[in-house]
Amino acid sequence: MTAATHSTLFPQVPESADAVLDGLDPEQREVALALAGPVCVLAGAGTGKTRAITHRIAYGVRAGIIQPTTVLAVTFTNRAAGEMRGRLRQLGATGVQARTFHSAALRQLQYFWPKAVGGALPRLVERKVQLVAEAASRCGIRLDRNELRDTTSEIEWAKVTQTVPADYPAAVAKTQRDAPRDPAELSQIYAMYEQLKRERSVIDFEDVLLLTVGILQDRHDIAEHVRGQYQHFVVDEYQDVSPLQQRLLDLWLGDRDNLCVVGDASQTIYSFTGATPDHLLNFRTRHPNATVVKLVRDYRSTPQVVHLANGLLSQARGRAAEHRLELVSQREKGPEPAYTEYADEPAEAEGTARRIRDLIAAGVPAGEIAVLYRVNSQSEVYEQALADAGVPYQLRGAERFFDRAEVREAGVALRGAARAGGNDSLLDGAENLPSEVRAVLSTKGWTSKPPNGSGAVRDRWESLAALVRLAEDFEQARPGATLSDLVAELDERAAAQHAPTVQGVTLASLHSAKGLEWDAAFLVGLTEGMMPIAYAKTDEQVEEERRLLYVGVTRARFHLSLSWALSRSPGGRGGRRPTRFLNGLRPGSTAFGVRGGAGGGGGIDRGSGTGTGASSGGFEKPARPRRRGPVLCRVCGKTLTEAGEIKLMRCEDCPSDMDEGLYERLRQWRADRAKEIGQPAYCVFTDKTLMAIAEAVPDTEGELVVIGGVGNRKLTRFGADVLDICAGRTLERESGEGDDDV
Q1: How many secondary structure helices (H) and strands (E) does the chain include?
Q2: Taking a C-beta distance cutoff of 8 angstroms, is the pair 440, 414 a contact?
Q3: φ, ψ for residue 598 (rounded to 5)?
Q4: What's the burial of 103, exposed, middle or buried (CB within 10 Å: 0-12/13-18/19+)?
Q5: Which of 252, 513, 522, 695 has the greatest number of CB atoms lying within 10 Å of its CB?
Q6: The whole model's pTM is what?
Q7: Which residues contact 670 (CB under 8 A, 6 or more apart)?
Q8: Which stretches within 478-517 are classed as H helix?
Q9: pLDDT band at 76 (very low <50, low <70, confident <90, very high)
Q10: Beta strands 369-373 and 603-605: pairing type?
Q11: Which residue would you say has higher pLDDT here, 115 or 647?
Q12: At residue 618, does pLDDT exceed 60?
């Protein structure tokens, strides 16, 4: 590990409140200083949002402006909450509550249940699958394992969207949700599931939120108690809140507005669980005086990776796309993203494994490499390919580091050795802290060389090796530290879930990769039907798939590889096509055009005191012209800079696929129209614009308006004619105006 890594793992606590602000960029600093009133932080991928909000909390606490026990910071995963607690501890802001929504609600429910309801809180069912299976059986409906999992997910969705069983079929129809089976049957199962819970006096995780909401709504004294405890609220990943979580947040807040939310609508990828970016996009409407800060300085990825990420979103549609953030890389240049086409999936997996092996040989740690795919079933072929190549790997989604049996056992052994001190014969001959740890862990399976192959034995060794590396880092950061000091550090990290990295290539789905980052990311299986997934039917579902790919791209710091296979098996018919989302971005591909970015650069909007219209989602649109996104040649992939080339969406010397007949018809129409309006032909459209239209052959106004030289004004004036000509329809003015035929 580098010295920079040591300073990240074991930083010195800032000496003062002002020192907490050191190293923040202007926008992050503005977030840290905005301690009163509603604050909305629109934070792009890799822009340091967690840094901004933790420094905001720490500055307020260290400056004496905020009492730590009055702060409740909520996020969506235990890992994120643990990271937030760890960072606050490093900044000297102890006593702040950083929890998930469910954890915070459960704590309140356990405390207030005896007073509000009486008796003990019903038992919490951690896995509802068995109850769902019994509910289906009572309804005379047989579910296989996959159907059971999907039905359970549907019940969870219904509850977080506050949909009762009787209303479920109507909710499915309204939202165009792709239900896993007949909605009427699912409604039956859902109702029976709720009945079984009542009969057995148990609750599930969604009930934790629902019951907390119910108590805070019905018991004003309890609501006031909670509001007296918590004065300041911070919500991370605000684009992922569900209606039920927003309702709970509203009850926590009451009539106050000391709320700071952080999110990015372009990273909304969990709508299937009930998450919606609407609360983020409507924040200014609900809070007209809100301070809005945009973080767009990307500290994670190279300009080449950021360029591709911006290009993906520049072609997006929908409300979230209207408020996209155009990232600006703060890193040095790196390699261009690699685009690779393979004949079949095994060849793609083997090629990926070879490239990973080469990266490791070049010095990239295995733990800093990830293979990301759309669905978990894609992992098997990559597991096999990496094993065949002798590359260690780990599947994302395993137990948390400090929950693993071998780590708990190691902790017990280290604690015992620390208590025994010099009386433990294991430590005889140990010269320093790392050697003491190696001696103790050698009794638990650690060896200086890793075992061959993969599997449980290798997983256990990797966990113990991670503890050895942590001891080495700890000793370098704090010379003279004892084994007792290390044990205390491990205990604190276990409480914060601040786990060291296990060395091995990460295999993960794109969804589970959210919030993580690696030096090198391999995005695999990028074919139509998989990206976007085949069951994404509506425009919004397809746009969410685009955002999912964007999340995957922005996981890479330096090396980025995108690949696809033309067939599933060797010798299969190679009829697959690469994902449409890369059209116009990968070399040799064609796109109708690239939209300009509405999000623009970073900055601060303190609020005008007046709300904005619903069409703008509550955020004011910039008065200056919108900047274009990156424009690439649709033939060779080169970035275009000349106006004429940008209109054509290709280099001048790249081959043209223009429809010559269409071009001539457009030229004749242009001459006629120019004569009618008494202006030169180029005032209608230039030759380059006509060539671009003849190459793109647009079908809709949306496809026509993005062509350089068209724009909204000319679309209104000439668009209908142009689209008719492109479609081969005869114009009314060409049909013989003035003829006597009836």
Answers
A1: 29, 17
A2: yes
A3: -85, -20
A4: middle
A5: 522
A6: 0.66
A7: 681, 684, 685, 690
A8: 483-496
A9: confident
A10: unpaired
A11: 115
A12: no
CA distance 644 to 543: 30
Average of per-residue pLDDT across 251-263: 92
- Give 699's contacts (C-beta < 8 A, 6+ positions apart): 723, 726, 727
Task: Look at residue 587 in the predicted model and tell me its pLDDT.
Answer: 85
Q: Where are the beta strands (DSSP E) in 420-555?
A: 505-509, 518-523
| Amino acid letter for position 593 | G
Task: Output the CA–CA distances (angstroms, integers) from residue 256 to 86, 232, 380, in the order listed.
Answer: 28, 9, 51
Predicted confidence (pLDDT) at residue 583 exceeds the cutoff of 80: yes
Under 8 Å between Cβ of 551 and 510: yes
Cα torsion angle, 224, 229, 231, 236, sign: negative
pLDDT band at 570 (very low <50, low <70, confident <90, very high): confident
Cβ burial, residue 154 (10 Å; 0-12/13-18/19+): buried
Chain position carrying tokens 């479609």:
727
Residue type for position 653: D
592 phi/psi in degrees, rounded to 5: -70, -25
| Residue 85 identity (one-letter amino acid) | R
Q: Are 68 and 94 in contact (CB under 8 A)?
A: yes
Structure tokens at 707: 């062509």
pLDDT at site 434 = 87
Alpha carbon dihedral 271, 276, 280, 281, in 10-degree steps, equals 100
Cα dihedral 99, 102, 108, 109 in deg (nearest 10)? -160
Return d(Cα 574, Cα 527) in angstroms, integer: 12
pLDDT in tens, 11-45: 678 878 888 888 899 999 999 999 888 999 999 99
Which of 365, 371, 399 has its CA nearest to residue 384?
A: 371
Measured CA to CA in angstroms, residue 690 lies from 422, 591, 684 at distances of: 86, 17, 10
DSSP 8-state class, residue 738: T
> What phi, psi does 550 have (nearest 5°)?
-60, -45
Q: Are 160 and 243 in contact (CB under 8 A)?
A: yes
Q: How far is Cα 595 from Cα 548, in angstroms, rounded to an integer?
A: 19
Provide the pLDDT for residue 363: 93
Between CA 160 and CA 150 the distance in angstroms is 16
Angstrom distance (rounded) from CA 379 to CA 396 = 10
Q: Which two tokens stand for residue 284?
A: 């200014």
Asked if 273 and 76 touch (Cβ cutoff 8 Å), the reply is no
pLDDT category at 397 given cuts 50, 70, 90 is low
Kindly state the greatest CA–CA separation across the chain: 115
Nearest to 176 by CA among 530, 547, 511, 541: 541
Tokens of 146: 């996959």
Q: Please state, in angstroms and rounded to a whole number, the distance separating the CA atoms of residues 267 and 312.
A: 12
- Residue 467's closest CA among 446, 488, 443? 446
Q: Is the pLDDT of residue 229 over 80?
A: yes
DSSP single-letter state for residue 44 = -
On the question of pLDDT at 297 being above 50, the answer is: yes
Among 341-350, 457-466, 574-583, the range scoring the smallest mean pLDDT is 457-466
**687, 656 Cβ separation under 8 angstroms:** no
CB 366, CB 331: distance < 8 Å: no
What 3-state DSSP class applies to 544? helix
- Cβ(287)–Cβ(543) under 8 Å? no
pLDDT digits (tens, 9 = 90+) for 594-604: 443 334 445 54
DSSP β-bridge partners for residue 562: 339, 523
Q: What is the mean pLDDT of residues 693-704?
A: 86
